[in-house]
Amino acid sequence: MTTPIALVSGVGPGTGRAIVERFARGGHRVAMLARNRERLEGFEREIPGTLGVVCDVADERQVDAAVATVRTQLGDPAVLVHNAVGGWFGNFLDVDPAVLDANFQTNVMGLLHLARRLAPAMIDAGTGAIVATGNTSAIRGKATFAAFAPTKAAQRILAESMARFLGPKGVHVAYVVIDAVIDLEWTRRMQSDKPDEFFCKPADIAEEIWHVVHQPRSAWSFNVEVRPFGEAW
What pTM did the predictor assign? Predict the structure, then answer.
């Protein structure tokens, strides 16, 4: 039995790291993609079985180079978790249109670039999983989310199109909506008056992604939503 390979984009100190830790603990070698080399090197030292690769997923040439490195050093990933996110806020009159385009390149084109390069090997194997992490901006456009929500909505629709194409070929695609304030150092500072149960724990998000990736074929999910029990929705 060969060791399964997972690739996680957008690996930072919160959800990204938690996803990497969960898959490493579950027996995967994990390739970590992010733009911050120093942070990736720290994660490599702290999490056994990981490989950090510097990559801006909005840049197709960097994606090509990163995927080539992962294949050479680890092999073909059987799991892709696209967690990289571009976000900026403002109403449609105030926001710079270039910001929307930059968010689109990370959120949508990043998913497309990675999936186009990894899915063929999954199809050949007849198995694999692709998960995109999203949020409720994918299904609603709040007034100050004009440069963000359209890109997350497009990301979800792209993932759905991929799911319809890849599902019959044995590759599971899912979109995980995170309707929550994620428990991070900076979100705790911003929401210092909130109780612990207000926040969604990165490790719990990672556990749900692990579960989705390992669902039996007779009961695959596509739209998955996670939120703290007290979240209004």
Answer: 0.95
pLDDT tens column, 101-144:
999 999 999 999 999 999 999 999 999 999 999 999 999 999 99
Maximum CA extent, the chain: 56
> In this structure, how many other beta carbons lie within 10 angstroms of the beta carbon of residue 120?
11
**Strand ranges inside 69-228, DSSP E:** 79-82, 128-134, 171-178, 181-182, 199-200, 223-226
Secondary-structure percent of the chain, ordered helix, strand, coil, rounded to 5:
50, 20, 35
Q: Is 182 exposed, middle or buried (0-12, 13-18, 19+ CB in 10 A)?
A: middle
Structural domains of the chain, ranges and CATH numbers in brackets: 5-226 (3.40.50.720)
- State how far the Cα of 166 lies from the Cα of 20, in Å rounded to an integer: 24
